[in-house]
Amino acid sequence: MSFKFRTVFAVAALACSAPLTAFAQVVTDPAQVQAGYYKVEPLHTQVSFSVLHLGFTVYEGLFSGASGVLLLDPRQPESSSLTVSVPVASVQTTSSKLTEELKGKDWLGAEQFPKAEFVSVSVKRTSNGDALVSGNLTLHGITRPETLHVHFIGAGVNMLDKKYTVGFDATSTIKRSEFGIKTFVPYISDEVELKIAGAFERQDTQPAMKDPND
Q1: Half-sphere exposure of residue 115: CA atoms within 13 angstroms, side-chain side
Q2: CATH superfamily assigned to domain 25-202
Q3: Which residues does the chain have with pLDDT short of 70?
Q4: Keyword Signal on this protein (predicted)?
């Protein structure tokens, strides 16, 4: 093996073994995060859901293509606010037949109700890096109060697109029947577990924010 190829392999091995923070300079202390306005980065944001199917298995799917805005104040999290919407027709499962069924009127009704939207009304810090974000969730044409359990992951300049990015995980449990989606309850569980991976990119100018009272 030539010296050139040995060098390339050595550099590649070092890159694979080095922590991501060595390249992206990711911070995990919320106090070090830049305050400001952010927009959802849709390529790395997704909402996954799971239900208990006939008491035998936990079945999962996901939504993508999210959009939205975040006003982030790490020093005073209570002043932060969030608006996120997801196109319902983006739903995906491992079964193409089931995916199409979920888009139909017996389930999500994607044609009549094209988006799901969450608009925050309050943020309560529960520990360093964790918060309860309460707001209004609109799904299937019905709006109800729901709460997200949010955990801060990290922030820093994305080494690929050079944009300052902040990331969170969030979880929540909703009852689909409360949103008018009652097909096969209770054989397919009424409770739906939601897991959200949210990536947000900082903006130089303030994006339009939706009034939660609208």
Answers
A1: 12
A2: Lipid/polyisoprenoid-binding, YceI-like (2.40.128.110)
A3: 1-24, 208-214
A4: yes
